[in-house]
Request: fold
Amino acid sequence: MTTATKPNAFFRHFDRHAHGKGLKGATTHYCPGCGHGLAHKFLAEALVELGVEERTVMVSPVGCAVFLFYYFDTGNTQAAHGRAPAVALGHKLANPNSIVVSYQGDGDLASIGLAEIVHAAQLGVPISVIFINNAIYGMTGGQMAPTTLMGQKSATTPYGRNPLHGKPMHVSEMIATLDGAMYVERCALYDQRQRKRAKAAITKALKLQIEGRGFGFVEILSECPTHWGMSAEESEAHVKNVLEKVYPLGVVKDEAREPWFHLEKPCHDPEKVLQVLETTRETPPSFLAGRFPTHLDAHDVALKFAGAGGDGAQTAALLVTKAAINEGFDATHIPSYGPESRGGTSYADVHVAKDEVLSPAAPEPHVLVAFNAPSLDKFGPTVKPGGAVIYDSSVISRVPTLREGVRVFPVPCGQLARELGTIMVKNTVSLGAVQAATGVLHDDSFLTALRISLANKRAMLPVNEEAYRRGVQAVQAQLAHAR
Amino acid sequence: MPPPPRRAAREGSGAVGGGPSRLTRHTAGERKSDRATERPKVLLQQHLCKGCGRCIESCPKHAITLGTEVDQASGLVPVMIDEEKCNDCGLCIAACPEPFGLMREEYELEHPEHLYGERERPRATPRDVPPHDVPLPRCEPMVLKGNYAAAVGALLAGCRHVFGYPITPSTEGAELCAKLLPKLDGVFLQACSEVATVNHMYGASGAGLPTLTFTSSPGFSLMLEGISYMIGAELPGVFINVMRPGPGLGNIGPEQADIKLAARGLGHGNTHAIVLAPSSPQEMLDLTMLAFELSLKYRNPVIVAADGYLGQITGRVTLPTRMSVPGLPDWAVWGDAEHRNNLINSIYIDWADLEEHNRHLSAKYRLMEETEQRATGYRHEDAEVLIVACNIPARMAKAAVAELRNEGLPVGLFQPLTIWPFPIKQLVPLLGHAKRLIVVEASDGQLEDELRLALHKADVTGLEIQHLRRMGGMLPSDREIVAHVHQLLEVSR
Reply:
């Protein structure tokens, strides 16, 4: 006699258990009386009753339930110790239509994997977590778990758990405090009534996920006759009379939430990708016809922009880089980065090369732009002989000794910017000054790069263009004066 | 007292699975004639009963008692059911922790092939849907920092699932993904740690999708456990490690600090992964795309070992002419009927099974070594002195070579693009003229160790190997390399 439908999501033959040989092809690896088998059974029945076994992914933990995949005729992924909720999230976010169950014990979930479960519960993406609490580490041989009771003897609390081992952790109560957890219930398996409730709780947690409502968490107080040193019957009584007193049964949290979880299918349309990347098909105009500023260097010109965080050194450096690339040169920009770029000193190295930038650092730049005195003191003396230094003369009053033939251009960048109504453009003033002092590119190279950069902030363009011109004028006045 | 009559689905004893089934059906004659309802009978599979007795309390008719006889097949003592008392209510089934210890009669079958129910028919093998390329319209070169370029490479490789945890100097990559992926209906999830990150990747990759993270050395250390699991479970995944100096917290500068981890230390077990070493924003994009391809090809993680400088450097990046659209591999645990039989797993409890699995992985590693060595160089074809450098130090070395060549010195650069496997195949042909190697690196000999091991395995001897090493965020400058080469050549003259 055959049957048409299976009442649960178990394999009918456990081919993964010792290659399905002998009795192992039909029995679990659990000790007699262990609660895991019952939790498996209720989960396996619920999956079929809800009609989702085909799209279910079971994530097995490390611990006694590590071999969940021997039994569950579903998709299966085995996770590292404690990481099952993180793995489950990966599955759920990859395929939102999959039903993902993270099944974990108390060592796995409440000790090594606490961060993962807490953040998964706070996130609230609909996955279902089955938490087996038997107050002990099973697979490793009966050591203390976070849930071990006070006074309980274990392999690592041979004299009983005492205050130096801390108190038992109430996981469901903690999970219930987290915003993403919609439903949290603690159940047991010791009699028919509790078993019915456990199965109903598992079913409810799965339904929450199926309907896209939220994260469901079912804690099951489970028997471990082997490590408790009890018979199955004594174990059941122990849960009822001892464990349950510490871990009260019942619904800890049950919130209503409308279905919300939905993800669109990811987009792979090339046009859309290019649009999202903000690429352009328009070749920006160039103004130098490939003529490299050989009056500065035959192959490679190095510039350094230095100041305090917020001076705009990085933005200015990036603009030079972009302008040079638009002219068909190779260019690189490397910032000083990290905490110092968020408030402390900030400097940027730029290279403009005829063919290829080799070393991107600029320990000896051809051109230095200094926005404050410490930057000028530090980098001024490194400027190559015959190079140029532009400094913000509105804040710097003293110039250190420079190398031979270095030309110096005091430009009141800050002051000129303020005259234009915004200190923000002082770096643009400096760009005009760099171009006027060195002729590294072309005025229009800079102005075009400015226009492209400010495409989304068009209102800022006129003041930047004017700032650039002021920088040019400041240097031109000095050059005229020098003549 | 004689034992009560036992209702058993199986008579006699003996092993099952191999020999003929001893399972017999109850006949109608065994049924109680006074049964009120026609319920399928409850059967005890004696040999599958572990005798825990959890069913005893569940029986309202008190029909079940602990057994007294050892079952010769299981070596355990199954419970006994008094047939006279049993009314087939089935409450004992709900109390039995074993899937098939107590069951309804429906499952009972006589034929051994159908023991415990009809054997699952082999389901249709899932289709393997490989990724495919689509043309990417031409656009102007972008100006991108290295971290951004790698993120763009990931998008063009078809990756829409990025997980990450902020760590300087890699974070801009994750930030760009967080900005762009929602516009493509992709997912960026900021994990609670690097440990969680790699496990999110494990899940998404287990579902069959391309996935990536950005990290830097301390974070990479934390991911190693997960990388070992991914290798064991044969999962692809791309790790952009923007290396920074250590040990410990070190600082956020550039260092080639994790060459040893990436090449030799990917967590516990016999692990290897291809390690790609870019040296420019363009290569950050190109090698990231390559990483996805290789990762899927070998079902193995791929590490893109960048450095702090490279993550931060901005330069010109030309987009490729094609982009990749992911498929769905046949091994994916996608969560549908087609992929239901699949398993992502790294535990093989049987020692012989695990050795076999390791041999399978080793064969993959050998194939990678055979086929995936990559290198480039600069004026290396006729060089008598070869500087060996990768990542940002290769740029400095290139500048130094240009200068040394101007001086007429026969110096070249050999630049591994794969640190593991080390490109010994590309190096050996150069050793006819190059008798001296100078390893320039931003670490305490981690690259040199890879070089020396590869030379040793290739039975290359008689080379003079020297080095220039900087650490802590300090990089070997081109001037320093030039001076170093001058000094070495001077000494040898």
Q: What stands out?
A: DSSP finds 16 helices and 13 strands in chain A. The mean pLDDT of chain A is 95. Residues 461-482 of chain A form the longest helix (22 residues).
